Amino acid sequence: MSRIRRACELAGREPRDIVLVAVSKTFPADDIRAAHAAGQRDFGESYVQEALAKMDALAGLELTWHFIGPIQSNKTRDIAARFHWVHSIDRLKVAERLAAQRPAGRAPLQALIQVNVSGEATKSGVAPDALAPLAHAVAALPNLRLRGLMAIPEPTEDMALARARFESVRALKERLCAEGLALDTLSMGMTADLEAAIAAGATMVRVGTAIFGERRTTQ
Ligand SMILES: *Cc1c(COP(=O)(O)O)cnc(C)c1O
After folding, report:
1. pLDDT per position as a tens digit, 86-133
2. 95 CB contacts (<8 Å, ≥6 apart)?
3. What pLDDT does 118 receive?
């Protein structure tokens, strides 16, 4: 995506240091197949049943699947069994279930904790002041590998504010690293704000609309 290249130029960063997760929720398997043919490998999904159907339809392709939606406890088994990454851990109970349910012999599930950096504006994610104990507990679980943080700041036209929110996520990650956790991933930035996120240090951007077009259903 040319926007990622341009944002990297402005930020003095290398495009290869940023993973583009193509958010394919609500789009059919054929759209994923077309993106794969164009070289895209990482795909993000928010609804488990919908994702499983697409995984089955695309079973022959080498794809990396990211679960990015809210995690219901009764969906952890499918997430643990079928996804490579999960971005939206926000409580220990869910992380424990994912760890217990990751099938033996699979690589560890690559895990991110979702942080609520906009206070009341969004409900998902752990509050910043509750992050450290959760992160240390998740990092100690077997079958999961805690890689970093994910955040979805409140939508804003104000790119300086967006960047400040993203900088605060980066600061949280750096503090956890100083406490001894080996974190290398910041999943932040979507169609509307990926430039601000890259300027603030994102290593993964999750982009739907700019790749697949407008979603018909908003959920
Ligand atoms: C839908 C979604 C995206 C993609 O949003 P766009 O604005 O279409 O790029 C990114 N992250 C999460 C968690 C989402 O649910």
Report:
1. 999 999 999 999 999 999 999 999 999 999 998 766 678 999 999 999
2. 89, 111, 134, 137, 138, 141, 144
3. 84
For 98-167, give the secondary structure using H, E and C. HHHHCCCCCCCEEEEEEECCCHHHCCCCECHHHHHHHHHHHHCCCCEEEEEEEECCCCCCCHHHHHHHHH
**23, 208 in Cβ contact below 8 A?**
yes
According to the model, what pLDDT value does residue 213 have?
96
How far is Cα 93 from Cα 103, in angstroms, rounded to an integer? 18
Domains in the chain: ranges and CATH: 2-212 (3.20.20.10)
Residues 6+ apart with CB under 8 A from 31: 24, 212
* Pair of tokens at residue 150: 């994910």
The answer to whether 124 and 117 are in contact (CB under 8 A) is no
Nearest CA to ligand 1 atom 5: 208
DSSP-derived secondary structure letter, 70 = P
Does the beta carbon of 191 sit less than 6 angstroms from any atom of ligand 1? Answer: yes
* Residue the block writes with tokens 């990926």: 194
Ligand 1 within 6 A of 23 CB?
yes
Specify whether the CB–CB gap between 79 and 99 falls below 8 A: no
Q: How many CB atoms lie within 10 A of CB 134?
A: 19
Tokens 């910041």 sit on residue? 186
Pocket flag, ligand 1, residue 21 (CB < 6 Å): no
